[in-house]
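Record pair follows.
FIRST:
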Amino acid sequence: MSNVLEVKNIEKYYGNKSNLTKAIKNISFNVTKGKFVGIMGASGSGKTTLLNCISTIDRVTSGKILINNQDITKLKGNNLNKFRREKLGFIFQEFNLLDTLTAYENIALALTIQKVKPKEIDERVKEVAKKLNITDILDKYPYQISGGQKQRVACARAIVTSPEIILADEPTGALDSKSARQLLETFEHLNKNLGATILMVTHDAFTASYADRIIFIKDGKVFNEIVKGEDSRKQFFEKIIEVQTLLGGDLSDVI
C-alpha cells in the first residue's frame, strides 16, 4: 500500500533566539492509504502543533510533509488554498457548520467553491448523506439538529470532496457518550467501507481504540507507537492505557 502522508524530520520552533520554544523536535512517520491513525500525548506535548502543520494551518521550521508525494510545505497563496480545499478533509471538535446554511448547503459548499456542476453536487451530497444516514435532516439548519447529527454532517462535508486524508481534531470532545460512539462508528464506516484515510488527534483512550495505530507524542518527539493488528478493540484500549501510564501524569489530563 502506498503512503498518503509522509512526515520527514519536521521541527517547529516558536519565538526568537532569546526565548525559543521547540514544539516539535525531529518527528518522522508515514500514514498508509486507507489507515486510521490516532495521535495522543500529554497537554503541551506538541501533538496539536503537529496536526496544524499537517493541515497547513501552521508552517514547519524545517523538514518536509508530503501528501501523495507532494511537498505541502512549499505551497503558498492560491496553490495552498486550492490544495487545502481539494485534498484535505477537516473534522473539528466544534463542528464549524455555518448556522445560516442547511445541512445540505453546508455539505455542498466545498463543491460549490470548486465550481462543480449543480447536478453533480446534488448527486454527491445525496450519496454521502445516504452513507452517513442523514438524508432526513438535509433541509434542517444546525440549530435544529443534535450534536451527533451535526458531527455526521461535518463528516459528510469532510468526505464529499474525496480528500486524500481526513484530519480530525478532538472530534468527540463536544459530544455526549452516545453521540461520541455513533461518530466513532461513522469513522469506522468511513475507514473500513469507504476506504478513507484518517489522522485523528484525541485525548480519549476509548476514542483512540477505534484507530488501527496510535502514535504517542511526548515533549515534541515520538515517544511510542502501537498497532492494533489482530487485537480486539478492548485489548487495544488496554494497551493504550498502558502507554498513557508510561507517559506519566493524570490519565484524565492526557490529551
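SECOND:
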Amino acid sequence: MEKLKEIWRTTVDELMNKVSWPTFEELRSSTFIVLIASIIFALTIYVIDLSFGFVTNTLYDLLKG
C-alpha cells in the first residue's frame, strides 16, 4: 500500500510542478491548427476516394462492355 501512495504522490508532484501547461492562447492556437489540418486531410482523402471511384467505375464500364 505504501508503494501505491508513493506512486500517487510522485504523479501529483509531476503534474503540479514539472508539467508545462499551455496558456489559453497557446491552446486556442493549437486547436485551430489541428482543426485546419484535419479539414485539409479529410478533403484530401475525399478527393482521392472520388478519383479512385471514378477510375474503377470507368474500368468496370469498359470491361463490362
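COMMENT: Residues 26-65 form one domain.
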